[in-house]
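Example record

The entry below shows one chain as it appears in the dataset: sequence first, then structure tokens.
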Amino acid sequence: MLAHLAGALVDLGVDVDFLVPDTNHLYLRPLQGRARLISLAMPERALEDQILDYLSAVRPHAVLTAKSEDMRRINRLRHQASAPFIHAVCQGTNLSQYLAEKPWFRRTFKRRQEIRTIRAADVVIGNSSEVCSDLHKLTGLDDTRIRFARSPVIHEGIFEQAEADPGHPWVGDQKRPLLLAAGRLVAVKDYPTLLRALALLRNDVPARLVILGKGSRLKRLKALAKHLGILGSVDFLGYTPNPYAFFQRSDCFVHSSVREGFPSVLVEAMAFGTPVVSTDCHSGPREILKNGQLGRLVPPRSPKQFAEAIRCTLEQPIAPELLRARALEYSDRVSAQAYAEILGIPVP
């Protein structure tokens, strides 16, 4: 997401430096020749020396970080830099939900660490109103320190990629609806609920499900699909470099998470006019779907309600133009303009 944001800021006329360990990574290709890509050394001491040299030499107006370790690193180094700058941190996780999942003996330490890190920054930018509300309660910071900006999800590149043929035999079958899910195969995504919902749905509707993403739970999910008698109706495709070809050609996007910060996959599906069914988890789905006006919301871990919501959506999908219009509110340009305003960066 930061790469998309950087590209959009460049398009607005902002000079952007992107500091990363590997400047040749695939996701950075759109930035080559546009932003300045700076390769960082990996040993910790050399890394901090290099960042400090950069801060002192370049004197940036603002530094944006998204990972906790990077936030803490910049907090340590800012007092040694030769010129002040704004340290802004991007927060895309509902911290209270995240911390609640930690073992009790780690929870207290982690909570104090995260709060201390966030409070040390100049401004915290949350990507959903619920994330911002949680930050207010957790840190006690006011509205001048906690700001909201939409994630830069939609950019022109996804529509170009979507034109490619996904090359999957299930695509285009008018008699059997194609459901799509995307995300890591981990516990928080709760794919077991989705598989159970599919098994119930197939009693009435011959739907099939494609899941994009890899993770540690693949074997047990396949075992569950076999147990439910739907293994032949589920395809675990793993990592897919071009998911947008599937987004554009699916009959319904399904999202079963028990916790999120901001599920950008919902917005990506909506950008192609694909109807959505999602759990009403913390946080993001209710905000994105406007309290269920733009897609059915079901309680987490509720297979029967999930199956019924999918069936109703296939029978009466939301108008595609409404979904596309909502998705464009999360374009990279809209996001970049919000970030520039928050950081006090003049835009030509």
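Notes for this example: The chain has two domains: 2-152+331-343, 156-329. The CA atoms of residues 164 and 245 lie 6 Å apart.
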